[in-house]
Amino acid sequence: MSDQITNILLVGVGGQGILLASEILSEAAMLAGFDVKKSEIHGMSQRGGSVVSHVRYGSEVFSPIVPEGEGDILFGFELMETARSLPLLRTGATVVANDLQISPPSVLMGQEVYPEGLARRIGEQFADFLLVDGQKLAADAGNVRAANTVLLGAISKRLTIAEEFWLAALKKMVPVKALEINVCAFQMGRAL
Amino acid sequence: MKEILSGNEAIARGAYEAGCLVASAYPGTPSTEILENAIKYPEIDCSWSPNEKVALEVAIGASFGGGRALCTMKHVGVNVAADPLFTLSYTGVRGGLVLVAADDPEMHSSQNEQDSRNYARFAKVPMLEPADSRECKEFTRLAFELSEQYDTPVMLRSSTRISHGKSIVELGERVTDLPTPVLTKNPAKLVMLPGNARVRHPLVEQSLTNLSAAASSLPFNRVELRDTSIGIITAGICYQYVREVLPNASTLKLGLVHPLPHQLIRDFAAQVDVLYVVEELDPFIEDQVKAMGIAASGKNITSLCGELTPGRLRSAFNLPLTVSAPPEKLPGRPPNMCPGCPHRGVFYALNQLKAYVTGDIGCYTLGFMPPLSAMDTCVCMGASIGMATGVTKVVSAEEKKKVVAVIGDSTFLHTGINGLMDMVYNNSPATVIILDNSITAMTGRQDNPASGFTLSDSPTTALNIPLLCTALGVKHVRVINPLDLNETRKAIAEEMERSEPSVIITNKPCVLIKRDEVFTKGPVYRVDPDECIGCRACLKIGCPAIEWRPAAGGGKKGKAAIDPQLCTGCDVCRQLCGFNAIGSVK
Asked: Cα–Cα distance between B9 and B7 in angstroms, integer?
């Protein structure tokens, strides 16, 4: 059963807009005719903690959380959180990560150091690894806050959901005044 | 029409479709969004209550008046609402009454992981447990119907994975053929004096027996026969994990987890070779199945603690787990108070004053985290004040002075008031700090009786906390600016010395409040690298906007820097700097 299911993880830091990105992804999957389930933990995550959002789609989805070791695609908004979630992936999974470091409290206070060489090590473990400068591309698109949409564009090409459904989902989920910039950011991510 | 809804959104939708007229709640993760979505339907009168007991009493009144009523809370909220609940099962209802209890296995955002199913049995109330958003909506509708049909409140048990999980739901129409509420007196049913209650109790027992019998043939309890070598009784989110991990096993999926459908369980058990019960937390179903004389197992392979996951269930059934990448040891990322949070300076002062802090439930519980590290107890909503009084009863005169209770505005109004009443009544020498940030912040900024707004965002009378404290008999009530470190420290030190009850109230709002006039961001601050000597004093408040930048070449030297994107200009770090290295950007 689960070989027909696409298992996606969106991870990062509270406040990065991960929940909105996973909403858009889920909406696009539903519009494309799939069964969809999604799960995440809110609550404490609003205060800058780690956020992991699970999205699964296919003909019939049971568990809303991605079974351990079966993640197909990891979509990381921050490097250390990307590395933290690698154990959820299957061998040969795809990793798309934003080239961004956000220091946790222990690093801000100088008690620990932010791990070096994370991107290189992720690339060594997962051959299908794309590192994206989401901030820069979003700035080029007109708003640095659209970095998520750049990343969404980057993974959209790797999923079996046609472009029209992505655009319809963006139109439904993104406020009208921000739509044009987000569609532009999405297309830039898609071109990567 | 199809929509992707969270369990909470679907429960709100179900209440709407069921013709619900009143919804009441106290916010609590993971239940909060039910009311925040129910308010989108103008047909439902939705309100935040000061606590779960009042919320349930509001719903009871609406039901007794003849309307359908929904009441929602997190699992521990049911402890607060338990008093009315246990007698409500005796009175029964007029309009259908549904109580949603949202459990939090794994304690993602809770202080315990009590299993609410025990309440259903204890309070003698039927309980439905949905397994996805579609069932959240359907079971909510059904719960209202069962409530009226069996003359009983009905509980709906959710959990974090159900409430905050999303799946596809087919929307329906609102029922329109319900009777118009009108006052009807029926004291024999609604006045629970001993004489009346003795008549009601046998009816409650009979009603549960009738429902148990009927439940064997009702569609929400469902047998799915596949390979009969393994049979699994399960409910709620666990059903999804069973289907994921053991797709060929036969299942008895229970929609009603109390009372159990005994005949259906016997029939299912007879059809399978080996019977398991898969459930999170307590062996609620398993124990009852065993008590029926049926051989079953479950808790010998799954834990009494935490939530299940597909991987944990695989391990329970000795199925292989593949690991692609081993976990790496990385710095943790715990939640933190926001930049500019008005609580930070208070906890810094408490740390400096070496206070013994009895804590409470809210964002400020994060004052426990280093580097503030200024919370010594945290048990339940409102407990800080009573605990402070209790501690002072047993320690030496010198140690009594160190005891400070810390509680937020919403938690104070929830169940802290009674503790303060007791403090005054019994002359406790402890000090209470009410961290009034004008909102119920931790659960996502809900209004409360002191915030001046209702759930529908309408202006209302704002409860005056200082006057309330004075009215309770506190002689020493002072309001301070928590962003002024000297004032804060001085006030706390003085009140700790005092041998009478005293209350300090902070007066700065949460930085996340959306109303513009409440919080205004000041000029952003920066660290002058020429003046910073790298003493790390500013790091002691743990502000996420302040970063330690080690000097080139490593070692202990370095300088602080402020992220202008995160800084709110609260000024607290500047007051900590002894070298005038921090100032606002002109």
From this structure: 6
Q: What is the pLDDT of residues B487-533, one digit of tens each?
A: 999 999 999 999 999 999 999 999 988 776 667 778 999 999 999 99
Q: What is the ipTM of this complex?
A: 0.95
Structure tokens at B226: 């596949």
CATH code assigned to B222-316? 3.40.50.920
HEC string of B382-395? CHHHHHHHHHHHHC
pLDDT in tens, B194-206: 999 999 999 999 9
Q: Which CATH superfamily is domain B344-506 in?
A: Thiamin diphosphate (ThDP)-binding fold, Pyr/PP domains (3.40.50.970)
Per-residue pLDDT band for A4 (boundaries 50, 70, 90) equals confident
pLDDT score, position A21 = 92
Q: Do B336 and A43 touch (CB under 8 A)?
A: no
Q: Which of B244, B248, B365, B443 to mutate to test the interface with A (most CBs of A within 10 A)?
A: B244
Residue pair B292/B265 in contact by the 8 Å Cβ criterion = yes
* Nearest-by-CA chain B residue for A39: B165
- Written as one letter, the residue type at B355 is A
Q: Total domain count for chain A? A: 1
Task: Assign residue B92 a region (left: φ > 0; alpha: ψ between -120 and 50; beta: otherwise).
Answer: left
Kindly indicate the confidence band of residue A1, based on its pLDDT and cuts at 50, 70 and 90. very low
Q: Which residue range forms the structural domain that includes residue A6?
A: 2-190
Selecting from 3.40.50.2300, 3.40.50.970, 1.20.120.790, 3.40.50.620, what CATH number does the domain B2-178+185-212 have? 3.40.50.970
Q: B552 — contact with chain A (CB < 8 Å)?
A: no
More confident residue, B264 or A40: B264
**d(Cα B159, Cα B306) in Å, to the nearest integer?**
12
Residue A45 has pLDDT above 90, yes or no: no
pTM of the model: 0.97
d(CA B359, CA B63): 37
Q: Is the Cβ–Cβ distance between B232 and B277 less than 8 Å? A: yes
- Does B511 touch chain A if contact means CB atoms closer than 8 Å? no
Structure-token pair, residue A136: 């820069």
Say if CB B257 and CB B283 are below 8 A apart: no
CB contact under 8 A, A61 and B167: yes
Q: Chain B 238-277, CB below 8 Å of chain A: which residues?
A: 240-241, 243-245, 247
Cβ B237–A46 below 8 Å, yes or no? no
- Write the CATH number of the domain with boundaries B525-584: 3.30.70.20
pLDDT per residue as tens digits for the range B108-146: 999 999 999 999 999 999 999 999 999 999 999 999 999
pLDDT of residue B331: 96
Of the candidates B240, B333, B444, the beta carbon closest to that of A62 is on B240
- In the structure, what pLDDT confidence band is assigned to residue A2 with cuts at 50, 70 and 90? very low
Task: Mark out the alpha helices in chain A (DSSP H runs).
Answer: 18-31, 79-84, 105-108, 118-125, 134-141, 147-156, 163-173, 176-190
Instruction: Work out the number of other CB atoms within 10 angstroms of the CB of residue B203.
Output: 14
Residues of chain B neighbouring A104 (CB-CB closer than 8 A): 331-334
Domain ranges of chain B: 2-178+185-212, 222-316, 344-506, 525-584
Q: How many CB atoms are closer than 10 A to CB A111? A: 13
- The residue among B60, B77, B76 whose CA lies nearest residue B26 is B77
pLDDT digits (tens, 9 = 90+) for A160-192: 999 999 999 999 999 999 999 999 999 999 998
Q: Give me the pLDDT at residue A17, please.
A: 84
Would B222-316 and B344-506 be classified into the same CATH topology?
Answer: yes
Segment (H or E) for B562: strand B558-562
Output the domain CATH number for residue A108. 3.40.920.10
Chain A residue closest in CA terms to B561: A108
